[in-house]
């Protein structure tokens, strides 16, 4: 008989009508509910009683949930509301309801994804986490169970409010408790309880490993062993599980999961950039190549190398290491550099799923430090006789008749076991006994020792050769063609290689873009070697030659010699360039342009002709502006004033004469102008006899006019003008009466 969940059908906090239970986890149960106020479906996460009863947790949960509700991003599950039901005391979180599956469901169903699919999942996860980091949040519980793939194709990260609330601070001094999913915990969180944005980067790297290989890097019989491995082992490369995976993703996983948080990208935004760079560096066909089934190879490696998975026991069920839980740090081995060394055994490594009231005594009861005597008992020293017996032939051991004690297999024993399991045993039956004394004990021991030494030397030198000059000293060159040079250098550096830039001109590849590399992408290169990045400088530029004053034929020849072409030609009058020759170019001379560029030419039509006006008889003040308005230059030549001739300033002639023809613009027109006569002082002749006055005035070059008012008078009574300077030839009127 199935018991009905007591919360189903109830109205929580007077607002949320619970319809059904969706899932139950280690810290909360999730229900599908209807928000009666806004008439929408929500996911109602109800905290378990052991957490809801802790006032400190409730206060922290409320504070962090309110902050998480402010986080809005397309790749983050929205938090709508939080509260406590007054009637039942239920502590809840109302979140966006997203019909779909978790990433854990996808991995369970499909196993490993292709690199393209893996990156397409990881990028939105990192985008959502990056938004949280910018808002001051650290998730601290990133795992496939908290990644939602909706039915309409969206990808969202869930449980921000819960993770932040439970892990703020991440490990309290009072209880020394630790929250997280042990399969994705970073080393610093296990070792000292400290976590920042780089903890989410580490968890994202573990997820990438799992997406690419279909399995987690560490599994063990219990969570403490897995946590221990996060601290003391380096996350393996995906290609160690699936050899067909490219080195770019090996480098990326190692970068994201570096044990030293300072060596990881500082935030998930930075990690997202490196993921995109890694994806761009991998050829398209390799992005769609799913991880090959490497179970047989992995089993052989496990036997040959004494895989620590065997040392720690059988693979744990997924629920044991994938569930979010609060762990007592007393259950963890002391991982600080100054702390005592502890040996974790299957019996002593029990993990407490404790609540905040979990006592130190309870934690200690689950884990006890091992004394020196106990530690020695695990690996008793072998005597000389026992050591010798390892190399002596003897009868096969009798089959075990009952339960046998087990212990962790050492790496040396693992290698010996793998060799014995993989190399068939050959029993040689001698038909004849060797000559007496030939294989004496002393001689046999010497030969055996010599062979052993030679074998060891062979293995050592083979290993040295393999990793220094043989295949083991090479890695595949990353493909960086088409990437900006800065991004390409970072991709190369992620592989532990030095990127050397060599620039070349290219008419087809944009400036600053990698055209190729040496070695080429996918070719072998020495570890810590150099990859020459061939970077485009853009098209090779050529200078436009100076063509002014050259004929069109000469200009065409020079342009073709420079790798340029004659473009549009036009004609223009020019006062300083001879007709038929080049006035200017576009682009201008000495400018650098790309090869094959067309150069426009402006060709001279010679000097522009203009109409010449007739200005003879005009005063110079009117004649000069008229001629200059035609673009001509005026030259004046003065002529002496003649008594009775044209007035001073009058143009008497011009050269060239205006006969209706046109002249070249800018040419000179000479104008002949009567100059001003000299001036004289008018004397006063009043009172003088008229004849005497005339003689005086005419003697000075002045003309005299008499006006007689009395026929009998002959003396000047008045004159005009009577004084002052006047032009030579000016008429002076004398009046006689």
UniProtKB/TrEMBL annotation:
Residues 390-420 are annotated as: Disordered. The chain crosses the membrane at residues 446-467. GO terms for molecular function: ATP binding; protein serine/threonine kinase activity. Keywords: ATP-binding, Kinase, Membrane, Nucleotide-binding, Serine/threonine-protein kinase, Transferase, Transmembrane, Transmembrane helix. Residues 16-277 form the Protein kinase domain. It catalyses: L-seryl-[protein] + ATP = O-phospho-L-seryl-[protein] + ADP + H(+); L-threonyl-[protein] + ATP = O-phospho-L-threonyl-[protein] + ADP + H(+). This is non-specific serine/threonine protein kinase. It comes from Kineosporia babensis.
């Amino acid at each position: 008989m199935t018991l009905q969940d007591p919360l189903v059908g109830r109205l929580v906090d007077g607002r949320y009508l619970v319809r059904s239970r969706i899932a139950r986890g280690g810290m909360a149960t999730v229900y599908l509910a209807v928000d009666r106020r806004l008439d929408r479906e929500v996911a109602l996460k109800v905290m378990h009683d052991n957490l809801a009863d802790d006032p400190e947790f409730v206060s922290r949960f409320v504070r962090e949930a309110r902050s998480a509700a402010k986080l809005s991003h397309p790749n983050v599950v929205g938090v709508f509301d939080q509260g406590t039901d007054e009637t039942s005391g239920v502590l809840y979180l109302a979140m966006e309801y997203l019909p779909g599956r978790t990433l854990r469901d996808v991995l369970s169903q499909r196993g490993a994804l292709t690199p393209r699919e893996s990156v397409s999942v990881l990028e939105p996860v990192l985008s959502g986490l990056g938004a949280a980091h910018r808002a001051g949040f650290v998730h601290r519980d990133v795992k496939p169970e908290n990644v939602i793939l909706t039915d309409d194709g969206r990808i969202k990260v869930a449980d921000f409010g819960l993770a932040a609330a439970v892990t703020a601070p991440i490990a309290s001094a009072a209880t020394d408790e630790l929250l997280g999913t042990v399969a994705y915990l970073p080393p610093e969180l296990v070792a000292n309880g400290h976590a920042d944005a780089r903890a989410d980067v580490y968890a994202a790297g573990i997820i990438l490993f799992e997406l690419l290989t279909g399995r987690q890097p560490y599994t063990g019989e219990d969570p403490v062993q897995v946590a221990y491995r996060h601290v003391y082992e380096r996350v393996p490369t995906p290609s160690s599980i699936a050899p067909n995976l490219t080195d770019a993703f090996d480098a990326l996983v190692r970068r994201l999961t570096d044990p030293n948080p300072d060596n990881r990208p500082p935030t998930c935004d930075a990690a997202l950039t490196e993921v995109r760079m890694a994806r761009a560096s991998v050829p398209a066909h390799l992005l769609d190549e799913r991880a090959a089934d490497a179970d047989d190879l992995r089993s052989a490696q496990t036997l040959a190398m004494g895989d620590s998975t065997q040392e720690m026991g059988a693979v744990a069920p997924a629920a044991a290491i994938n569930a979010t839980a609060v762990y007592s740090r007393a259950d963890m081995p002391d991982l600080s550099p100054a702390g005592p060394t502890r040996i974790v055994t299957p019996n002593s490594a029990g993990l407490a799923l404790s609540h905040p009231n979990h006592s130190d005594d309870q934690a200690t009861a689950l884990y006890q430090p091992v004394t020196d005597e106990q530690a020695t008992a695990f690996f008793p020293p072998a005597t000389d006789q026992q050591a010798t017996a390892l190399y002596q032939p003897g009868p096969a051991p009798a089959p075990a008749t009952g339960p046998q004690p087990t212990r962790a297999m050492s790496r040396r024993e693992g290698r010996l076991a793998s060799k014995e399991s993989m190399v068939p045993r050959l029993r040689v039956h001698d038909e004849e006994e060797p000559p007496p004394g030939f294989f004496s004990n002393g001689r046999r021991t010497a030969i055996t020792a010599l062979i052993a030494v030679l074998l060891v030397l062979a293995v050592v030198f083979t290993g040295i050769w393999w990793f220094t000059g043989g295949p083991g000293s090479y890695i595949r060159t990353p493909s960086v063609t088409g990437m900006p040079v800065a991004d390409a250098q970072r991709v190369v550096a992620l592989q532990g290689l030095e990127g050397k830039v060599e620039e070349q001109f290219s008419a087809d590849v944009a400036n600053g873009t990698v055209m190729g590399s040496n070695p080429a992408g996918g070719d072998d290169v020495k570890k810590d070697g150099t990859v020459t990045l061939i970077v485009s400088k853009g098209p090779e530029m050529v200078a436009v030659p100076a063509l002014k004053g050259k004929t069109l034929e000469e200009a065409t020849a020079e342009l073709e010699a420079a790798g340029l072409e004659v473009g549009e030609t036009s004609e223009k009058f020019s006062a300083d360039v001879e007709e038929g020759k080049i006035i200017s170019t576009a682009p201008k001379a000495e400018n650098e342009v790309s090869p094959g560029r067309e150069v426009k030419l402006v060709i001279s039509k010679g000097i522009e002709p203009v109409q010449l006006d007739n200005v003879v008889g005009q005063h110079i003040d009117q004649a000069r502006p008229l001629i200059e308005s035609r673009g001509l230059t005026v030259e004046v030549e003065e002529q002496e004033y003649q008594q009775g001739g044209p007035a001073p300033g009058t143009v008497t002639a011009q050269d060239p004469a205006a006969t209706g023809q046109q002249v070249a613009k800018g040419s000179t027109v000479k104008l002949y102008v009567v100059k001003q006569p000299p001036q004289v002082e008018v004397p006063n002749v009043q009172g003088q006899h008229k004849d005497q006055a005339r003689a005086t005035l005419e003697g000075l070059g002045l003309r005299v006019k008499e006006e007689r008012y009395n026929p009998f008078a002959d003396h000047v009574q008045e004159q005009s003008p009577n004084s002052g300077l006047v032009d030579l030839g000016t008429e002076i009127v004398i009046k006689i009466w």
